[in-house]
# Entry
Amino acid sequence: MSITTTGDWEGLARAAREQETVRRQPAGAAATVLGDFTERLEAMIAATPEEEVAAPISERPRRSWYAIHAAHGWPDRYTGDLDDPHGGEWRAAYAVLSPVIERGGIGLLHGKRGAGKTRMAAEIARSGRFPRDRTAGVKLTGGPIEKTRTAVYRTAMSFFLDVRATYKKDSPVSERDVIEDLKRPGLLVIDELQERGETAFENRLLTHLIDARYGAMRPTIIIANLTAKELGETLGPSIVDRVFEDGKRIDFTWESYRRAGR
Ligand SMILES: Nc1ncnc2c1ncn2[C@@H]1O[C@H](COP(=O)(O)OP(=O)(O)OP(=O)(O)O)[C@@H](O)[C@H]1O
Ligand SMILES: [Mg+2]
# Structure
């Protein structure tokens, strides 16, 4: 099955979501349905008109795409109009990651520099396919249910700096506020996880945050220039367990987009 070089990549994400539904069925049924699914996916790819395949994201209706903002921490490089992402492996990985994030799982993106990890997190954010923000106090106040979806970006270092800033004597916010703020958004991206905190406590706070989001079924994408083994050591067994349970680890092994111009 070639899902890597042809076909509309949003369509593939849709197909991967269907596959997730299949995965949840009993084993016998899943095998049959999976066979059907593969055939349908191949048929869908074969039937996709060339023009549709070629249509860049930037030419599709913008209203189906969420804007991501510098105000939520996103670097400018990823917030503007970008060309359609390309590269078969990258697109196939996107198709696998998207449904995991949509249902509140953890995405671990690691591997080579320049292979499109941050870009993938940005594209997931721009697709708007992630849960709504946490409703603040609805149960207490009976207020309206939160309808917004916010994708927040932080580097591990900026998280640690925010935490450290609360230690100043006159700081108006506490470390609890920093954590609570990052539990709320529908999607949180933590980039550059290879940067560790100065203390074990700071590192534990980050793990606690990821854990709390998982418990609340709010997805987190974690990005690091680390090997799988180093990731395991950095994240600890509880997060690794959760990735196994309902998440995806993607190793970005392909060529850097910075050099290759693919
Ligand atoms: N699939 C893609 N198609 C086209 N351009 C891409 C794709 N993925 C990434 N790029 C571009 O390549 C550059 C590098 O990508 P990105 O910053 O996501 O890499 P990275 O894996 O996060 O690297 P680093 O580990 O150094 O942070 C960016 O300008 C990005 O827009
Ligand atoms: Mg990056």
The chain has two domains: 1-55, 63-260. The pocket of adenosine-5'-triphosphate (ligand 1) is lined by residues 77, 85-87, 90, 113-119, 225, 252, 257-258 (CB under 6 Å). Residues 1-9, 29-35, 47-64 have pLDDT under 50 and may be disordered. The first strand starts at residue 106 and ends at 111.
